[in-house]
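Colleagues,

Please find the record for the two-part complex below.
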Amino acid sequence: MQLATLLIGLISATALWSGVQALNQQARNAYDRAAATFGGSRTAMLVGKDSAAFPQKLFVDLRRAGWPVSPMLEGRIQIDGRSVRLLGVEPVTLPSEVGNAPAVARGNLLAFVTPPGEMLVAPETLRDLDLKEGARPQANGITLPPLRAQRELTPGVLVVDIGIAQQILKQPDQVSRLLIGKSKAPRAALESVAGDRLRLVEPSAETDLERLTDSFHLNLTAFGLLSFFVGLFIVNSAIGLAFEQRLPMLRTLRACGVSARMLNTVLVIELVSLALVAGLIGLVCGYFIAAALLPDVAASLRGLYGAQIPGELSLKPIWWLAGIAISILGALAAAAASLAKAIRMPILATAQPQAWQQEQRRWLMLQTAAALAVFAVAAGLVQFGDSLIAGFAVLAALMLGAALILPMVLQIALALGQRSARKPVGLWFWADSRQQLSGLSLALMALLLALAVNVGVGTMVESFSRTFLVWLDGRLAADVYLSAASDTQAKEIRDWLRDRPEVQAVLPGGRADSQLGGAPIEVLGLPDHATYRDNWPLLDSAANAWVRLRPGDTCFVSEQLSRRMKLAVGDRIEVPAPGGSWPLEIVGVYADYGNPKGQIAVNFAALTRRFPQAPLNRMGLRVAPDKTAPLIAALQQTFALDDRNVADQATMKTESKRIFNRTFSVTAALNTFTLGVAGIALLTSLLTLANSRLPQLAPLWAIGLTRRRLAALELLKTMAVALITALFALPLGLLVAWCLLAIVNVKAFGWRLPFHVFPLQLIELLAVALLAALCAAALPVARLARMQPASLIRIFVNER
Amino acid sequence: MAVLRGVDLTVGASESVALTGESGSGKSTLLHLIAGLDAADSGEIRLADTLVSKLSDAGRAELRRDRLGLVFQQFNLIPSLSVADNLVFQSRIAGRHDAGWHEELVERLGLKNLLKRYPEQLSGGQQQRVAIGRALAPKPLLLLADEPTGNLDEDTADEVLRLARDLVTRTGCGFLMVTHSARLAATLDRQVNLHAGVVA
């Protein structure tokens, strides 16, 4: 039984930890791939002072001055209504150390640079666009070069020669940035060549995507770590009990002359061998867990951060080695106390110097003191910490402190129960529960942590869900959403709509890319219409904010941007625009959940004036409800639009909710895993305790309590401690939810959600906890109820 | 395998009987059958007017609780309860708690200063005195003891047995004790020797 328990614990711990690490590794590989795409953030570069495009002549001047620079033009284009990133590169001067450069060189360089040129694209993007290699789609009224699949490319990016990109983006002789090669050749000072028109951006070891997704991976890692520790709780409990049972044999071996060192060496070899086997099985399970969760993780990362993660799991050998190592190290850590005890063990057993109660009180006081110290650290972090790591540290300290103080909470609750007991069996019920605490506390701690995380994450997700739905109603207020293939088609559609009486209003939409404080932002154009005025989710605003937005000298900022850059209503910002800097006063802050980029919203007309090149192919329509479906059908038929280009509000909301739910399905799966492992921890503890409890139960049976009654009492005891643990887990979980909403989310995503308590959810979780306890206790209790008298009599037999 | 064959034994009220025999002779098995801890394949066991051998599992549990007192070599006290709670446990679940008798037991067993302690804080002799007190608290019809002094030194064993005998006389119950010690067996009213499952 102990062997099975030990293996189950180690396999669970290794599987969950390795599974999460596999997911993280897969995502990081994808970020590396994105960062290495033609000068991501891993390459030093020169950019325009206000991050706007600059004349190509500067590239020529810098090359002549010894700078190993290569020009690049970047922009967005629409292919069949789908927005993709277009990169124009100059393959001859492209620095060799820039990722993916050799791929161009390997291909037909001549074909790439001479008309009609070639457009490199990742196979995934080719599939998304529903196009084949060699196809020549249209964008901005120009037929694009033939598409050529390039595996190394990051999805969502198209790469062409810079000359072709300048034509497509209608930016002749313009460059977005200059990539700098690593040549040590002498070069003139930057200012002497470019004046103050360019600034140097140093390469960053961490990509923007990595920074953005850090919180997500930290979250996954935290779950993995939690499950790992819960698994180790099982191992620790199994090893502890195995050691107690082997104590007489170990003493005999010592008495026969086996040294403490040799005994420990043998114990360690035995443990490492078991950990090796369990680690290998755990890794295989971890691989399957990761493979099962990867589609949802990829969906979450795409939904939250726009990160593209391939759907197939590919793992490096280091993952396998790390998994085995963590299994062995975990097993040794879990066994450390027992091994230390084996070294110090006196050969002769001595009488108990203190009663179990005194011993337990000493142990409880020590743990409580440690818990209070950990809580003090958490309070300090809440007061002085100001980072995502600090937020997670608060959570970790809170959980650790709660786990440490749990036995004391149980002890107090059980002592109160004992004090109120009037009948002898009741008295024994509480007293025995107290005595069992030391054997069950680790499993109960695991249950507490799993329940608290479930309450915390569940409350957060439910709060988010409720807020998200209200927000979605505000953001998706139009009845039909339309994305034309090009601006020209958008104009044709608008003309066509003018003659349709069922269309009450056409709400033009547009967005442009810009920068604020060195970070990319989106500039959104909002038409001056009641649909927006009545529904747009403003969190804070100046008086008459919508009226003040009309002239084009004010803006709303998204909550993320407002928090990140500490912007508030009344502050002023300057946004780089093609015609020069655009000064704007902030008159409102709005919720923009799920958008990784900072965003500002301005009057639509003002946007078209300041960003004349911004694509204007999107629009919303106000339509009478019963006319929506026929209008969509007519639009699809007339303009050859598909479901991706035109959708009604209900479809958009359903799709948004689907993405939302998928985003949290990983969390839900990990929640269930953690609760499952906690249940196993409880089961294994009860099973291992069951044998050692016989000497305590047999006298009661001998005195006149039936086996069935004893079994019922045992079940009730497990349920009672599980109930107390669950009741303690509820406020702890709500505290965890508050930490997630008020600290972690704000740091990780930039938005703060209102805190709601969902009583039904809490009741449901209480029921789950009791069910888990019932399932865990069922087997040992059933065994006790059906136990043959001979097994109980054995406890009293002298000739043993 | 037949452990006991044709055993015929009667223990009268206020009578103390020592059950002796070599290891494996069936002494403990006989005691367990009388106590209703195990069921015999055949034969009859009667306690006063109750046919123990015909009782169900629950009936035997009730019999042990209300009419029997059991003392074991390993003491088998309830470790989570104090001496005071151990002493009253059986008499209270049997609904036969008598405060006066309880006081007398505590006094005669010399447990007054040990009431708040826990079993593991007591010596072997003290634990066995508590076990005897617990068994006699409900004033049983029959006290069954399986090697009650097996874990005690000679002086302590003598003292514990003297106390048990005195209290048995005081309550008027029967006393059947399994022992290996001929010296201790000789202190009881009667000795019965078992050999290979048969009364010798």
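Residues 21 and 163 of chain B are 24 Å apart (CA to CA).

Comments are welcome before we finalize the supplementary table.
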